């Protein structure tokens, strides 16, 4: 019997086979969850549909999380289909590509608002929309990155957005506590996803991460999926408001090892 047997999970932010959301969907499927997925736009449908079909998921809905009417529509469809849900995953982040290089002070007002709206407020909006549908003992998970607490060159406005996302996770954990719903965030190490491709210098950062992390191992979408299973299962029944690092230990390091062999 799987760890998520009998639980229903909705995963927002599936884009392709390299998505962290896909790693989570596969892990949830393995552990017996009933799964629904959402994607950001029509252009992604041809990639998402085959993935969903491969895990027996037939609840596949487009949702522009910057639009309240889209969120309301998906919520209504989920209620009609599932009644209640147990797990809500927010694997969404976006900033304009030209905001992800050069000095942070060049961030535009419009770009700042866009990054905060899609990367942060959408989690709050989804939590509010699905609050009446969440079963006691349920879980909400967002995806963050270490650039929220330490400077990652060129990550810029996304680092600020992730900091706000982590703060929002804590406030939501407080709000949902009386309902018996846990809210946590997973801070994953750098993974070659569609979103990561937009960050200038990502390839160099990726190599430096492996050299500096204590385990000297890359992080995979499967690793994040397994962490999400833990945070969504009864094994984490008393864990909420936490930032759960899946980064080969990178976040504990202050400086790289400069000793010569």
Automatic annotation (TrEMBL):
GO aspect biological process, one term: fatty acid biosynthetic process
CDD domains linked to this entry: ENR_SDR
Residues annotated for NAD(+) binding in this entry: 13, 19-20, 64-65, 92, 162, 191-195
Protein's pathway: Lipid metabolism; fatty acid biosynthesis
EC number, UniProt record: 1.3.1.9
Positions of substrate binding: 95
Superkingdom in the source lineage: Bacteria
Catalyzed chemical reaction(s): a 2,3-saturated acyl-[ACP] + NAD(+) = a (2E)-enoyl-[ACP] + NADH + H(+)
Residues annotated as catalytic: 145 (proton acceptor), 155 (proton acceptor)
GO MF annotation: an example: enoyl-[acyl-carrier-protein] reductase (NADH) activity
Sorted UniProt keywords: Fatty acid biosynthesis, Fatty acid metabolism, Lipid biosynthesis, Lipid metabolism, NAD, Oxidoreductase
Pfam families, A to Z: adh_short_C2
InterPro entries attached to this UniProt entry: Enoyl-ACP_Rdtase_NADH, NAD(P)-bd_dom_sf, SDR_fam
Enzyme class name: oxidoreductase
PANTHER family: ENOYL-[ACYL-CARRIER-PROTEIN] REDUCTASE, ENOYL-[ACYL-CARRIER-PROTEIN] REDUCTASE [NADH], CHLOROPLASTIC
Similarity comment: Belongs to the short-chain dehydrogenases/reductases (SDR) family. FabI subfamily.
Entry protein name: Enoyl-[acyl-carrier-protein] reductase [NADH]
Organism: Candidatus Desulfolinea nitratireducens
